[in-house]
Amino acid sequence: MRLVIAAPANGVELKNALKAHLQADSRVKSLLDLSVPEGTYPQLSFAAAQEVAAGRADRAILICGTGVGTAIAANKVRGIRAATAHDLITLRGSVENYDAQVLCMGQNVIAAPAAWALVDIWLNLRHDTGSGYAPKVGEIAAFECGED
Fold this sequence. Notes:
Belongs to the LacAB/RpiB family. Keywords: Isomerase. This is RpiB/LacA/LacB family sugar-phosphate isomerase. One of its GO terms (molecular function) is isomerase activity. Helix 1 (12-23) crosses helix 5 (112-122) and helix 2 crosses helix 3. The mean pLDDT is 96. Helix 4 links the parallel strand 4 and strand 5. It is built from six helices and five strands. The protein has helices at residues 12-23, 41-53, 68-74, 88-96, 112-122, 134-144; strands at 2-6, 30-33, 59-64, 82-84, 102-106.
């Protein structure tokens, strides 16, 4: 899997902890860190989401203080579905049901060991195209493209 990771200053500690695990994980073929010290959460979220939208990355992980700001910003990029998840049910649903390609987390909300436990599961999750949610994801995509 080709991943992008990014965090502004208020997410760098959790980002670095996750990055260390991801670099050692055989499921990760490439890991691009877009973080820069002066980067704002909107700038970094847009950049990471654009990598996914353009097909240069499969998924992205964004870290800020709560994970909410990064999700809002990433969701502004056409074709991107970003979700904030700090628990297993939300994490699984975000990918399996809603086909979210961007995982957002908050450094002030979740400890690094718990975040890694979720990311470890997230790497194996896939969208269930046969579920009842799949047509709804299509409905969202159609609206976004102005077809509705």
